[in-house]
Design goal:
With about 170 residues, the protein is mainly alpha-helical. The chain has helices spanning about 15-25, 55-60, 65-75, 85-95, 100-120, 125-135, 140-145, 150-165; strands spanning about 1-5, 40-45, 45-50. The longest helix has 17 residues, at about 100-120.
Length: about 170
């Protein structure tokens, strides 16, 4: 049987995500952990294992703090993933409606500003900017001002600064 696993290996493999989720759930006192096993489809002599992040995003939307932690880790990641653009956009969108800790908010602010500074602005950055707008930039706004001369960054700088004053 041919297995097509859209999760990859290492830190973002299904097993590793499930292990980290169990650890976070235990640490956060979640008495009924979610079933994050990804969707699997089989046909003929093939099996497809879909991204575990789809299940994590459902958990974020359901208010699961362990899934929120995984979501923050995911948007901090620079690696490329199958369906990564959609998964990262959906993760950022779900995090906008989630209850975030101050530490998670700070990590998100740092990620958004650093991406702007390195001029790494993939399509999902739009959702990251909306997330940063929602949680506020705090002291990170002054770091964005330093990078406003970059034409691509200027758009997001203006966007984030405009909303920081509200």
């Amino acid at each position: 049987m041919t297995v097509i696993d859209y999760n990859g290996t290492g830190f973002w493999s299904v097993d590793e995500v499930l292990r980290r989720y169990a650890e976070y759930a235990r640490r956060l006192g979640i008495t009924t952990p979610r079933d994050l096993r990804p969707e699997v489809h089989s046909a003929d002599d093939k099996q497809w294992i879909y991204p575990v992040m789809d299940r994590v995003i459902e958990g974020i939307e359901g208010g699961d703090p362990a899934c929120v932690e995984l979501g923050v880790e995911f948007i901090e990641e620079d690696a490329l993933f199958p369906f990564g653009r959609v998964l990262k956009s959906n993760t950022a969108r779900a995090l906008r409606r989630a209850s975030l800790t101050d530490e998670q908010k700070e990590r998100i602010r740092k990620r958004v500003v650093e991406m702007l500074g390195t001029r790494y602005l993939p399509r999902e950055y739009r959702q990251y900017a909306k997330l940063a707008r929602k949680i506020g930039l705090g002291t990170w706004l002054s770091r964005i001002e330093e990078q406003a001369e970059n034409p691509r960054a200027k758009h997001y700088y203006t966007y984030l600064k405009e909303h920081a004053s509200h």
